[in-house]
Amino acid sequence: MNTNTWQYADHEMALHGKEVIHTLTTAGHEAYWVGGCVRDELLGRAIHDMDLTTSAEPEQVIALFPHVIPTGIQHGTVTVMQGGHAFEVTTFRTESGYVDHRRPTEVAFVKEIREDLMRRDFTMNAIAMDEYGERVDPFGGEADLRAALVRCVGRAEERFEEDGLRMLRCIRFASVFRFRIAFNTWKGMLGRREGLRYIAMERVRVELEKMLSGPDPLRGLDMLSRSGLLACTKVSVPWEQCEGDALSGIVQLPDELRWGLLLLSCRLNSEAADELLRAWTFSNAVRLRLVHLLEWETELVSRAVAIAGDTASDEINDEVLRRSWIQLLIKLGPDTAADWLELNKVLPASFRRLSPEADKHVARMAELADMWTKQAAVIRLKDLNITGNILVQAMNRRGGPWLGQTMERLLLAAACGDIPNETEALLQEAKQVISNE
Ligand code: ATP
Ligand code: MG
Questions:
Q1: Candidate from 37, 96, 121, 198 with most ligand 1 atoms within 8 A of CB, to mutate
Q2: pLDDT tens digits, one per residue of 372-382
Q3: Which domains does the chain have, with CATH numbers?
Q4: What is the distance between the alpha carbons of residues 62 and 141, in angstroms, rounded to a whole number?
Q5: Quick check: 1 pLDDT over 50?
């Protein structure tokens, strides 16, 4: 056996994959590595999982291995566990009866590898490799990889008509690999883009996430807008209003914050973003992270503008800015603060269209923020060395709106360092505040 076949896959995984293939071929079936793993090996990209394809039917596969999970048995897919690694093994099959531009209603098992490769989306994804490293490549996938081209297997219009998601996969691959899209494939996409409306947003989002986390998301965004595909998603996106200049530093951001910059570049406020992210089926955690980030941006900017417009105080010192920062910190928390600082680094100042004065305040806050955050003795109410109960007893008053308000004032005073975060000092301050009212 040629052990040099896989340079970009985990050695153990490749070895166990080969064992699975060998067991199948020894039993008289055909079996191959196929799809993404073969493509990525040829491209020299790290391989995370290996899909296998075989002439054996699922029942025959199950009979040959001690540990098999029937993942998608009706579609011919089972997961074979071998040496602690999982391999999806799919029987050669064709697909037909596409309804509503997504997912086939019928699959039929076939005997020829070529027929199986024919159902796959792009030539580079339609290459199979046997246990000796021999490749089956009926549609010129290797040549297209060398030419850096994404090309449909067969007639593009038909393939995109069958399954609208392929159009987004096409742009995703072109973006992530920095490939071009073959002319007929591009043309086919333009003709069938309406089919994207039938694709569940969750699948759309997954493709866009892969595209956006890649090395050249602007390339993908550009192709999305030129193809008109963005206007054809089930849940509309206001990306036509996205300002390209704002995005120039996007690759410097971690994956999730890239979405934040994108939303911001469309000048969406946090409520609009919230609605959109829900409709786009983002997890609550990601949605809230981004919504808070946008809230921070809006609040910080409006504070900077207010400070700049405050003619009464002719000298703005860092202390005014620091107090603004601390208030935001209390409201939205240090995680959002850290996210905003990252975002701010790549956002061109001109995007905000502020007065030079306000711009200066934003920049100064960003400059000193880390120090201010570190210096804040307390940020969260629950870390304040006093509770509502203690306050109620000490004041000999019944609970009411005054309580929450007083607690918030105490938190702000302690966070700003006006008073120490100590119960006695906090009580003292509370009495002062209340007697002044
Ligand atoms: P990734 O690197 O994102 O995993 P992949 O090409 O491996 O890319 P998968 O979704 O894992 O994508 O699919 C495995 C293989 O199944 C593909 O390489 C392709 O041959 C085939 N395939 C996947 N989705 C489609 C589709 N929508 N239409 C046709 N063939 C598809
Ligand atoms: Mg894959």
A1: 121
A2: 999 999 999 99
A3: 11-146 (3.30.460.10), 253-372 (no CATH), 381-436 (1.10.246)
A4: 31
A5: no
